[in-house]
Amino acid sequence: MLMNRIETAVINNPARRAVQRWYEAPLLQRLGGPLPERARVLEIGCGPGYGARLILDAFGAARVDAVDLDPAMARRARRRLAPYAGRARVGVSDATDLSALVPENGTYDAVFDFGIIHHIPNWRDALAEVARVLKPGGVFYFEEVTRHALDRAVYRILFDHPEQDRFTDTEFLDALGAHGLHVRGHRTIVFGDFVLGAAQARLNA
Ligand SMILES: C[S@@+](CC[C@H](N)C(=O)[O-])C[C@H]1O[C@@H](n2cnc3c(N)ncnc32)[C@H](O)[C@@H]1O
């Protein structure tokens, strides 16, 4: 589900970028560990592309493929990532079916989700795709918004999100396990509103 205008303004904002850079990225790195050398990474729901920049600069990925369902967001991300030509590629795709862009299973050393899966009604299908495209032992870094937040009046009034099958932190972590992704570390913050962490694909997948 695409963002409405208010959420688009919140996401395209220096405050959002500061949180991503100074809080989320360092915490994800602590929870999931560093990327391997020459890592090839996928970011789902890249929005305006700031996360992909962090994946290249702060996590040290060799290259990143970033996708978003919204062509307008993909255009913004392409502009932001233009200086990284050759190391960054941006596509328009639904995270629940990446088969056109990523036909090969086991393509990536890591997949990043900066707050996108709670936008997807059939979000378990996105987890299945994450598990499919990760190499054996690859790591899924996630920052997610739970039902506790989405059910709050401020979220219901200001933003648009799927109404059905919203998840708690525990339900999200359990779903990772059900898709063969072993949680290495996680942290639930702000009274259960957000869950951040890292989960590893089976080595013998
Ligand atoms: C809350 S924004 C997060 C953007 C960015 N990751 C960030 O943290 O700033 C959610 C993004 O997910 C995208 N999105 C929603 N549903 C999607 C789907 N099924 N597949 C891929 N992207 C999706 C939206 O277009 C939006 O850019």
Description:
The chain is α/β, with parallel strands linked by helices. 37% of the residues lie in helices and 25% in strands. It has a single domain, classed as Vaccinia Virus protein VP39 (Rossmann fold), CATH 3.40.50. It is built from eight helices and seven strands. A seven-stranded mixed β-sheet has the order 3-2-1-4-5-7-6, sandwiched between helices. α2 (14-32) packs across α3 (50-57). The radius of gyration is 15 Å and the shape is globular. 39% of the residues are buried. The model has no long low-confidence stretch (mean pLDDT 96). S-adenosylmethionine binds at residues 1-3, 11, 16, 44-47, 51, 67-70, 73, 94-96, 114-116, 119-120.
Number of H/I helices: 8
Count of domain modules? 1
* CATH architecture descriptor: 3-Layer(aba) Sandwich
The low-pLDDT segments are none
Rg over CA atoms, rounded to whole Å, is 15 Å
- Structural class, judged by helices and strands? alpha/beta
CATH superfamily, by name, is Vaccinia Virus protein VP39
Mean pLDDT: 96
Remind me, CATH topology? Rossmann fold
Instruction: Please provide the ordered H/E string of secondary-structure elements.
Output: HHEHEHEEHEHHHEE
CA-CA gap between termini: 31 Å
Question: Which percent range describes the beta-strand content?
Answer: 25-35%
The largest sheet has its strands arranged as 3-2-1-4-5-7-6
Ions, cofactors and other bound molecules = S-adenosylmethionine
Q: Give the overall shape, derived from the CA principal axes.
A: globular
Count of strand segments: 7
What is shown here, in short?
The chain has 205 residues and is of the alpha/beta class.
